[in-house]
């Protein structure tokens, strides 16, 4: 190679000019363009809905883990559904008519059945009062939710006990929504919103109503919405939640815009009641939250990290921990502690499970004992970094240049689940 | 529509996003091909890049096309580097390049001195992923030192210094003996 004259520039010129097979294939370009545009449409739609939805869905998912709050959680279902189903500005289709009936309701009364796999069916009567108050009655137990106040109260008269959930540190954009009318604000946010994607299910007669059905798939699960063909009033709403255990909520016997007194929704607690209060942290989870969640899991299991970062693994841990308490069942303080720990675990896992594909996040903690030396259990690449943050079994985070090579490591980004 | 306005519009306008895609797909695809040699692997990386862009563009805070370019190539580089960091995959790429023959001769193209793409690729693959990123962005994606700095999170001066070091290493690799046999030395 002759590099006698200005060899550096000569080499650079040669390097640039090296021919290679680097012409894109039109077939790939066009197919990816379609996928990218579809992903973009979804992202734009999600962005418009995100602010109001996150708070309610997160809360709903968190409290669902606690058996005492299942009925209160079901209230979140209704609220989440209302958020998801805000109508667009297009022509009034049958679907939009049903959506309109749901979201424009000033009040409603309905019946709700909750089926959790492996448990007996539970039923409740529910009431809704605009803008965002809910009341659930399960026999004598009453659960009251005020989404504007970010507060949920469950009253248990037989035990003269009240359980209070408070949402803390929600991101600013969401908190601001609480300061003005819930639905009006949402309409402003979504005024250019296209109707949500749905699939028609045809017509059938339900409880004497000729109803039209639609199926919607959202991040929390699949919803079948049946509405009166004439009025659009909801007749039956079924939601099957993603995750384990399988949970299905069915709402029926709707009475729309009935007269309900505001006193029914007051979250005041009778003076003689003992109050148990839980704060649900709603700020964006960080790496340290994830480390803390694994520490709790290891403590609960006797020293091992969970098999996977999923609901099933957490449920296994919590059930084992509850059964491992006193012979006559867990004491009150044990239940309180387990509840707080389940919130903390869910929050920590959320950090890891929402990392993007580019983070190359992987979990390798299955079967690993806490404090095993030199054993990576999780690693990911922070946004914009070429290096990795690696968490080892001593729960120490280190900055490393390359991803560890560990047998059985499981990538956390699921392409199929995110349309990739 | 000027370039910067197109980037801002593309946050919620699919037509503007489509225009950005049309403009950047060839560049990103070429970059991925130069980094990953095997077309199917490069197409996967390009797909991951644009799907990530599509999903996150509504929240993208950049205001200029330069911001966008840095962002897109940062995502592409992360996707590519995640792939080549695994030794097994790197070996597969190296093997593919070894089977690649003499690209210019096989395709009836004029040879560039003694450099041929499969041999150059093997030498590039022998570099640290960060150095691969710098070299490829500079010579095959035509990004400026400042833009490369924006992609990898370094100052332009540091990029210049790194590039000089990388070129010296490559020149030593190819310059000592231009014989094609010598180009097959050194596996990753």
SSE arrangement of chain A, N to C: HHHHEEEEEEHHEEEEEEHHHEEEEE
Number of helices of chain A: 9
Name the poorly predicted regions of chain B: 176-188
How many distinct beta strands of chain B? 0
Overall spatial form of chain A = globular
Mean pLDDT of chain B: 84
> Can you tell me the residue ranges of chain A where pLDDT is under 50 for at least 5 consecutive residues?
49-92, 172-195, 415-420
* Beginning-to-end CA distance, first to last residue of chain A: 46 Å
Look at the helices and sheets of chain B and give the structural class.
mainly alpha
CA radius of gyration of chain A is 26 Å
SSE order of chain B: HHHHHHHHHH
Q: Which of globular, elongated, flat, extended, rod-shaped describes the shape of chain B?
A: globular
Can you describe what's shown?
The complex is a heterodimer of chains A (420) and B (188). With 420 residues, chain A is α+β, with helices and mostly antiparallel strands. Chain A has nine helices and 17 strands. In chain A, β8 and β9 form a beta hairpin. The longest helix of chain B has 23 residues, at 14-36. In chain B, 45% of the residues are buried. In chain B, α5 runs antiparallel to α7 (117-125). The model of chain B is unreliable at 176-188 (pLDDT under 50). In chain B, 70% of the residues lie in helices and 0% in strands. The radius of gyration of chain B is 18 Å and the shape is globular. Chains A and B meet through α1 and α2 of A and α2, α3, α4, α7 and α8 of B.
Write the layout of secondary structure elements.
The complex is a heterodimer of chains A (420) and B (188).
Chain A: H1 7-17, H2 26-64, H3 70-84, H4 94-103, E1 107-116, E2 122-129, E3 133-138, E4 141-146, E5 151-156, E6 161-168, H5 172-177, H6 182-189, E7 199-206, E8 209-218, E9 221-228, E10 234-241, E11 247-256, E12 274-281, H7 287-301, H8 311-323, H9 332-353, E13 362-363, E14 376-380, E15 388-392, E16 397-400, E17 410-411
Parallel strand pairs in A: 6-12
Antiparallel strand pairs in A: 1-2, 1-11, 2-3, 3-4, 4-5, 5-6, 7-8, 8-9, 9-10, 10-11, 13-14, 13-17, 14-15, 15-16
Chain B: H1 3-9, H2 14-36, H3 39-56, H4 65-84, H5 87-98, H6 103-106, H7 117-125, H8 129-139, H9 145-152, H10 156-175
Helix pairs in contact in B: 2-3, 2-4, 3-4, 4-8, 4-9, 5-7, 9-10
């Amino acid at each position: 190679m002759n590099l006698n004259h200005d060899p550096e520039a000569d080499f650079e010129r040669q390097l640039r000019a090296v021919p290679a097979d680097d012409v894109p294939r039109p077939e790939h370009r066009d197919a990816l363009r379609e996928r990218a545009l579809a992903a973009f449409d979804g992202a734009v739609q999600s962005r418009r809905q995100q602010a109001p939805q996150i708070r309610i869905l997160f809360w709903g998912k968190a409290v669902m883990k606690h058996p005492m709050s299942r009925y209160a959680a079901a209230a979140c279902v209704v609220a989440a559904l209302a958020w998801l189903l805000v109508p667009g500005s297009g022509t009034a289709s049958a679907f939009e008519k049903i959506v309109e009936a749901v979201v424009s309701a000033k009040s409603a009364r309905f019946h709700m059945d909750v089926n959790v796999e492996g448990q007996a069916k539970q039923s409740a009567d529910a009431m809704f009062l605009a803008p965002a108050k809910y009341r659930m009655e399960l026999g004598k137990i009453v659960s009251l939710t005020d989404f504007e106040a970010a507060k949920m109260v469950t009253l248990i008269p037989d035990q003269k006990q009240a359980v209070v959930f408070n949402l803390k540190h929600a991101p600013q954009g969401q908190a601001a929504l609480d300061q003005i009318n819930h639905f009006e604000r949402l309409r402003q946010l979504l005024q250019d919103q296209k109707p949500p994607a749905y699939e028609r299910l045809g017509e059938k007669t339900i409880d004497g109503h000729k109803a039209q059905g639609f199926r919607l798939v959202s991040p929390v699960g699949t919803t079948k919405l049946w509405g009166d063909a004439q009025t659009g009033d909801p007749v039956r709403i079924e939601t099957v939640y993603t995750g384990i255990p399988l949970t299905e909520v069915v709402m029926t016997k709707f009475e729309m815009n009935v007269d309900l007194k505001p006193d029914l929704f007051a979250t005041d607690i009778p003076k003689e009641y003992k109050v148990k209060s839980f704060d649900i942290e709603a700020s964006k989870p960080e790496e340290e939250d994830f480390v803390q969640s694994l520490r709790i899991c290891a403590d609960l299991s006797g020293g091992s990290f969970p098999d996977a970062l999923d609901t099933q693994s957490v449920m296994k841990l919590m059930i084992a921990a509850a059964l491992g308490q006193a012979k006559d069942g867990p004491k009150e303080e044990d239940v309180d502690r387990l509840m707080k720990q389940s919130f903390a675990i869910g929050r920590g896992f959320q950090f890891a499970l929402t990392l993007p594909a580019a983070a190359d996040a992987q979990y390798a903690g299955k079967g690993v004992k806490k404090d095993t030396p030199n054993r990576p259990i999780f690693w990911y690449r922070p946004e914009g970094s070429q290096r990795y943050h690696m968490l080892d079994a001593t729960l120490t985070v280190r900055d490393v240049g390359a991803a560890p090579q560990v047998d059985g490591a499981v990538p956390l980004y699921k392409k199929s689940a995110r349309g990739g | 529509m000027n370039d910067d306005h197109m980037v801002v519009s593309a946050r919620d306008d699919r037509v503007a996003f489509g225009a950005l895609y049309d403009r950047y797909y060839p560049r990103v695809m070429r970059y991925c091909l130069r980094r990953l040699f095997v077309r199917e692997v490069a197409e996967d990386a390009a797909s991951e890049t644009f799907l990530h862009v599509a999903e996150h563009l509504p929240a993208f805070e950049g205001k200029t096309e330069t911001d966008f370019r840095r962002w897109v190539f940062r995502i592409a580089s992360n996707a590519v580097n995640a792939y080549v960091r695994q030794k097994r995959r790197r070996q597969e790429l190296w093997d593919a390049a070894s089977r690649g023959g003499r690209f210019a001769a096989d395709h009836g193209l004029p040879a560039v001195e003694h450099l041929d793409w499969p041999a150059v690729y093997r030498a590039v693959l022998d570099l640290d992923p960060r150095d691969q990123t710098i070299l490829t962005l500079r010579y095959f994606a035509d990004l400026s030192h400042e833009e490369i700095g924006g992609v990898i999170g370094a100052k332009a001066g540091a990029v210049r210094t790194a590039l000089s070091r990388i070129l010296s290493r490559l020149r030593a690799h190819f310059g000592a003996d231009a014989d094609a046999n010598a180009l097959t030395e050194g596996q990753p």
